[in-house]
Amino acid sequence: MISILNLTKTYNYATVVDVSSLTLEKGINVGLVGNNGAGKTTLFRMLLDLVIPTTGEININNKNVRGSDDWKKHVGSFLDERFLISYLTPTEYFKFVGDLHHYDQDQLETFLNEFQEFFNGEILGTKKYIRDLSKGNIKKVGIVASLIGIPEIVVLDEPFENLDPSSQMRLKAIIEQKSKQGITFLISSHDLNHVTEISDRIVLMEKGKIINDMQGGQQALVVLEHYFNK
Ligand SMILES: Nc1ncnc2c1ncn2[C@@H]1O[C@H](COP(=O)(O)OP(=O)(O)OP(=O)(O)O)[C@@H](O)[C@H]1O
After folding, report:
1. Does 204 reside within a domain?
2. Which of 8, 79, 197, 223 gives 20 to 30 Å between its CA and that of 126?
3. What is the rounded end-to-end Cα distance, in angstroms, of the chain?
4. Does 160 reside within a domain?
5. Domain ABC transporter, which positions (predicted)?
6. What confidence tens digit (pLDDT) does each residue in 6-23 have?
7. How far does the centroid of ligand 1 lie from the alpha carbon of residue 14, in Å?
């Protein structure tokens, strides 16, 4: 589904990503972990063709993300607020994204209804612009928008950050439910408990390189706690 080959990114002579080979398979949720500056976001930005690699390539469904647009309809993503249109209300923004995916009004309402609990009355129909929402609520808008159209792959950068504990639990349930509907998640997170729980596979980065690649779950949590406790 996703294959990465000889990928590097260098800024001012410093190589911040150096991944010689990585293949991600459909149906296997992957959690990307690593300390600040390990290269997780840069890797995601190259995957989404937002940053040009210095060398190497990333293919989604056998198409290089550079120079093709085919993959875009199969990939949902939310990395940061720049993905949103801040002068719209969430309702207007969801309509905008829904239109891109040819959702009619009923379809969009049915889709958004699934997230009532997650939204906790703070998102829909509040007349607030996205720019005026709290950080956690902005994150919820971005996460839910990334799921519109039931993409094959959803890439999320630190989705649990800024969410209150109830919302974190609800997000885990959403990820679990959407995985069953066929979405494969690629998630970076500093929350070791959550990321090991929702991921089938954990990829650990250090200084741009992959230094461990293991199955998710309790055993991964033990390994990661040991690593980060150094
Ligand atoms: N545009 C840029 N110019 C120069 N250096 C950059 C640029 N973008 C990223 N970097 C550097 O690349 C390195 C990796 O950053 P990146 O944001 O990918 O790390 P990360 O693993 O996502 O970190 P965090 O956990 O703090 O979000 C950092 O040293 C960062 O300063």
Report:
1. yes
2. 79
3. 34
4. yes
5. 2-224
6. 999 999 999 999 999 999
7. 11
